[in-house]
Design brief:
five-stranded mixed beta sheet; alpha/beta; D-Maltodextrin-Binding Protein, domain 2
């Protein structure tokens, strides 16, 4: 009797071992804590990787007040698109690029209007999928968000009155002793203006329109910005002129990321980044400049 009982128990143990081996070999299960049980490495299911466009709508944020990159208008003329939760419309270079990205990927476009300092937090918190707003791809920003692009290469210049003593300046050192400002939270204000020894740097302005108004009203002698913003300024204010010091040996010293304009999104969102980069891949610097010229030609104050 004992021999029979022992045989039964042995057979049961063999069957259990066989079942365990079959389970292990054909239907592996990850550990419940999100780690690989064998290696201890993180396991992220593919389905959990965000794309930002599961609903087929790419929601982008911009100021809608930064011509020629973006601006607000009262109708849908020239291909403008609605601004969410308003009766107004957005247009400009950023809109033109966003539409091309959406067309390439089969997405609809939704535009959210936010102030400059709210753009990166909106991406980080998932309020929007991306920011397309003339942001330079600085090292500081790249610590907070990921960037696709560039979708424009924008050199740094200054703008002054055409009848100013500074109108013929050939280098940044000639601006010493003069008053200036730029837009807050930009490399124009934080990086470039401090390079002008002896410059009288005034308080930063909350947006490009206020920066240009400070110059136009005589509050400052010159402002610093990128070339597209300067070109748009001349359309709005024909009494201004651009000071371009490139190639002079007395120009602003900036990193490549300071002049490369990119599209920001949440850290780790490689699916969205790759989709946007794929849409931009066939476009050259000349293509970008041509689109920017189209945007500058139709910005509201040029009419």
């Amino acid at each position: 009797m004992k021999k029979i009982l022992a045989l039964v128990l042995s057979l049961a143990m063999v069957l259990c071992l066989f079942a365990a081996c079959a389970k292990s070999g054909n239907d592996p299960q990850p550990a419940d804590n999100g780690e690989n049980a064998a290696t201890g490495t993180d396991v992220t299911p593919v389905a959990d990787v965000p794309s930002g466009v599961e609903d087929g709508v790419l929601t982008v944020a911009m100021e809608c007040a930064y011509a020629p990159y973006n601006w607000t208008q009262q109708d849908d003329a020239n291909g403008a698109v609605p601004i969410k939760d308003t009766n107004e419309f957005a247009n400009g270079y950023d809109i033109m690029i966003a539409k091309k990205i959406c067309e390439k990927n089969g997405w609809d476009l939704e535009v959210v209007r936010l102030d400059w300092d709210s753009l990166i937090p909106a991406v980080q918190t998932g309020q929007v999928d991306a920011v397309i707003a003339g942001q330079s791809m600085t090292a500081d920003r790249m610590e907070q968000v990921d960037f696709a692009g560039p979708y424009l290469y924008a050199s740094i210049v200054c703008v002054t009155k055409a009848d100013s003593d500074l109108a013929n300046a050939k280098g940044k050192s000639e601006l010493s002793g003069h008053s200036c400002t730029s837009q807050a939270s930009t490399i124009w204000y934080d990086t470039c203006l401090p390079q002008i020894e002896g410059a009288d740097i005034k308080t930063a302005k909350d947006g490009a329109p206020l920066m240009l108004m400070a110059l136009e009203t005589g509050e400052v002698d010159f402002v610093c910005c990128d070339m597209p913003t300067a070109q748009g300024a001349l359309v709005a204010y024909p009494d201004l002129t651009i000071l371009d010091f490139s190639g002079s040996g007395d120009d602003f010293e900036v990193d490549e990321g300071d002049i490369n304009i990119g599209i920001s999104m949440q850290k780790g969102n490689t699916v969205l980044k790759d989709a946007i980069n794929s849409a931009l891949a066939g476009m050259t610097a000349d293509d970008f400049n041509a689109i920017m010229a189209d945007a500058t030609a139709i910005q509201p104050l040029s009419e």
